[in-house]
């Protein structure tokens, strides 16, 4: 199974659901993502309820709570408003963990030099974004994804739009990047 694909984004203001690859494309490796705290796994989403690989990740990383969200105009209340909110650049005080059960989506994250990296997510991709990283989320042109949201403990839904550099978690994240 293939893993996530990532690349540096262009500066176009065109439809954010498009890939936005530079020309020529500048891929970003899994190692480069790990160096900024982003980790991913490829799992079998067809057996997510009984998958021993998912259970091991959950146990090893302490993911004790999960739910499932379907992002589709016919299923998600306030669909357009939610998409706009998800695409606002923000950070969280906790890690963001998402597992794509169906459909496709993009996570955009900032690298050390503040450039956007687009991460293409497809069925079976699980990703963790570290607390304090600036990021955003959008659908692809398919306008649909279903994802499991995982949390350590009770879910926290609060996003802090950029600028949010005053938060301790942001300062710890930036400091960890400088030490790495």
* Helix/sheet category: alpha+beta
Query: How many helical stretches?
Result: 4
Order of helices and strands: EEHEHEHEEEEEEEH
The largest β sheet comes out as: 9 strands, antiparallel
Percentage of helical residues? 10-25%
Give the low-confidence spans.
none
| Mean model confidence by pLDDT | 96
Report the principal-axis shape.
globular
Query: Over all CA atoms, what is the radius of gyration?
Result: 16 Å
- Strand residue percentage: 25-35%
Q: Distance N terminus to C terminus? A: 30 Å
Number of strands: 11
Please, what is the oligomeric state?
single chain
In short:
With 180 residues, the protein is an alpha+beta fold. It has helices spanning 30-35, 52-61, 79-87, 168-179, and strands at 5-8, 27-28, 39-42, 65-71, 90-91, 96-110, 116-122, 125-129, 135-139, 145-151, 160-161. It is built from four helices and eleven strands; from the N terminus they run E-E-H-E-H-E-H-E-E-E-E-E-E-E-H.
Description:
GO terms for molecular function: acireductone dioxygenase (Ni2+-requiring) activity; acireductone dioxygenase [iron(II)-requiring] activity; iron ion binding; nickel cation binding. Belongs to the acireductone dioxygenase (ARD) family. Its main location: cytoplasm. Its EC number is 1.13.11.53, 1.13.11.54. The protein is built from four helices and eleven strands, in the order ββαβαβαβββββββα. It is of the alpha+beta class and 180 residues long. The strands form two sheets. Strands 1, 2, 3, 4, 6, 7, 8, 9 and 10 form a nine-stranded antiparallel beta sheet that branches. Strand 6 and strand 7 (116-122) form a beta hairpin. The radius of gyration is 16 Å and the shape is globular. It starts with a strand and ends with a helix.
